[in-house]
Amino acid sequence: MATEETRRQLATDKALRIVDAMRSSVARRGVAGSTFDHVAREAGVSRGLLHYYFGSKERLLVEVAKRDSEVRFAAMASALEHATSAGQLVDQWVRSLQATVKHEPEFVSMLLELYTLAQRNPEIADELSSLMQGMSDALAQRSRRLEADGVIRLAASPEVVADVMLGFGYGMALRLLAEPGRDMDEAIEVAATAARGLYQDV
C-alpha cells in the first residue's frame, strides 16, 4: 500500500498530469496500447519522470483506477444520500450502471487488466481489493441506514446485495467490451427488475 510520503508525491502537478494522460490514453488506445512513451508525450514530461513517480505501467494503472474510483465514490455517495426509498436506490444504481456500461467501458477495462496483474503481484492485489471493497461499501452503507430506519427491506445483508448489484454491472460492462456497440438497454432494464427484488419498500 502507498505510504503517506508516496501519496504526497503523487499529488504534485506533474504526477496528476501523468495520471490524466494515462486515463486519456487508455480511453483511446486501450491498456495494451498505452505505453510510457505515449503517456509521457501527452503529459508533456520525460519518460524517466513516469518511472520516478510510478515505477511501472502497472503502478500507474493502479493510480488511475484509484483516482477514478475516488471520483465515483464521491458521486455515488452524494447521489445515494438523497435516495429515500427502494425505488430511488435502484434508479440511482441504474443511472450509474448506464454511465459505466455505455460511456466509460475503459474503467472496467482497467479493472480487468489490474485483476490479471493481481494474480502475480500481491501489492496490486491488495490495491484492487481495496478499490472493489470501496465500491461495494458505498452502496451497502446507504442500504444499511435505510434498512435500519425501517424504510426498506433487503433480500440479504447489505454487503451481499451490494456485491450482487456490482456483479450485474461488471458482467454487462465485460459483455460490452467483448462486443462494442452492442445495445445493452434491454439487459439493463432486466437487471433493474431483478434489483427491485433485492430492495423493497417497507
UniProtKB/TrEMBL annotation:
Pfam family, one: TetR_C_6
Alphabetized Gene3D superfamilies for the sequence: Tetracycline Repressor, domain 2
Molecular function, one GO term: transcription cis-regulatory region binding
Record domain HTH tetR-type: where: 12-72
Alphabetical list of InterPro entries matching this protein: BetI_C (IPR039538), Homeodomain-like_sf (IPR009057), HTH-type_TetR-like_transc_reg (IPR050109), HTH_TetR (IPR001647), Tet_transcr_reg_TetR-rel_C_sf (IPR036271)
Annotated keywords: DNA-binding, Repressor, Transcription, Transcription regulation
Name by which UniProt lists this protein: Unannotated protein
